[in-house]
Amino acid sequence: MNIHALLVSRFSEALDKLGAENAPVPVARSSRPEFGEYQFNGAMALAKQLRQKPRDIAEKIVELVNLDAVASKLEVAGPGFINVHLSDAWLANQCEQALNDPRMGVAKDAEQTIVVDYSSPNLAKEMHVGHLRTTIIGDAVVKVLEFLGHKVIRQNHMGDWGTQFGMLLAHLSDKLENQMAETALSDLEDFYREAKVRFDEEEGFADRAREYVVRLQSGDEQCLKLWDQFIDISIKHSEEVYDKLNVSLTREDIMGESAYNDDLANVVADLKEKGIVVEDQGAQVAFLSELADKEGKPAVYIVQKSGGGYLYSTTDLAAIRYRCGKLHADRTLILTDARQALHFKQTEIVARRAGFISDEQTYEHCPFGMMLGSDGKPFKTRTGGTVKLVELLDEAVERAGKLISERDTDLSEAELKEVADKVGIGAVKYADLSKNRTTDYVFNWDTMLSFEGNTAPYLQYAYTRVQSIFRKSGISPKDLTGAMRFTEKQEHALAVLLLQFEEVVGVVSREATPHVLCTYLYDVASAFMSFYEACPILKDGIEEDVRDSRLELAALVAKTLEQGLSLLGIETLEKM
Ligand SMILES: NC(=[NH2+])NCCC[C@H](N)C(=O)O
Question: Helix, strand or coil for residue 279?
């Protein structure tokens, strides 16, 4: 059920009857419960057009609009707003349908093919906190898109190619003389640092590194074998993080930079032929007047360096051509931190000029801000190093375990472990997901693990509350078949919220903003707590049909929390 869409269609019919077929149909959520739940705001503009008084037009629309079964009251307010008060009977009926439908009445969208490029770590190094954000947010976006019926193609655009591999392979080759690759690469951060020191300080090493680059690019077999080993172990490191995070990425989703290697020369040749790039000081560049500076000088976008080398940009152009041309992506979403925004803007301009993207296809860079430490500076270890994700996630589980065992709980050892796992990982993921992704956010253990406020533990706890009500009642949700019936304002408010789920996932799918879903789930959980306080369920003296109706409403709360959290990649628990 999409209340907003329903109201738009009903008001649109009313406007047709008024003879205003093409008038816009602005319907918004009301700002306060006294104004009902939704508001039609189109009467004022229409009045101007028809040269009538706005309130008169609004009254006419109220006469014409067919909302008898949906609204208990329509009132004209202020200069000509129409406030819609939804009817309890209609809400109850819709909630029953949602409860009995596996998709909770959420319709699927017209199917699109959507490429989502996320996680995409650089394999020459350990994944860092920036990759945590793209992985978590990207995975939630993917799940929402799939839930809405789209064909989603995950693309893990790993940085597995480029000149830095010369240095790494030369170093690896030396190390393999007396140890196994697994041991040599057990700590990628250390390995990278060692190689870099040698590159900067050891005589002859830099030359060897450059030789390795040439050998790698010319397909030298021994060199490719080394590279394969390096990549394989490095991917395993990422998989360990994916596993702990419980994200849906697999090896099949990897389409790293190296996959486009053979296509780069073709891309540049194509751009040259189309006159999109020209030679400038030996390099192949495009001039982008769309992004000119204050003096009118166009931005310079390089696709091939003067020595013939290719760049990050060349690979991204090849990737666009593949995704739009071969995979037929209607939309391409790319999640990286905001510092890459200009790169993607420029890349899109060049790709459109070249016809790699058609007018119907979109290319959407979804930027996010930085993760900051409590000092407001980029998140680092106490000694200033990069934080290893595996260690961060282990710490989350450990902290959650401690917090849970300090609470009054009757969980067994095994249950405790499971709860710690789900709460700890859930907390880290949710802390990230719940912030508007475009802003920086401060990483804070205490807030993210708190059982109060907009956190994963709070939502997981709300879910277990419902489960415990059902356990106490001895009734299973399946056995509830009676009609729902609302009399209290808390029931009404909760029902309206529950029926807004579809509107919310729609926003997330269009804007790649999981925080909208987080805020929504938090509102649902809070509305449930208020409802539970005001409307007793299992107390003596509560009539059976009232009890059952309230149990059904609680069951829909649990269903919504479970579905919503699962779209965010966060697990629920039966008790905690
Ligand atoms: N098509 C892309 N450029 N995707 C994003 C790649 C992100 C890059 N590997 C990084 O770590 O910053």
Answer: strand
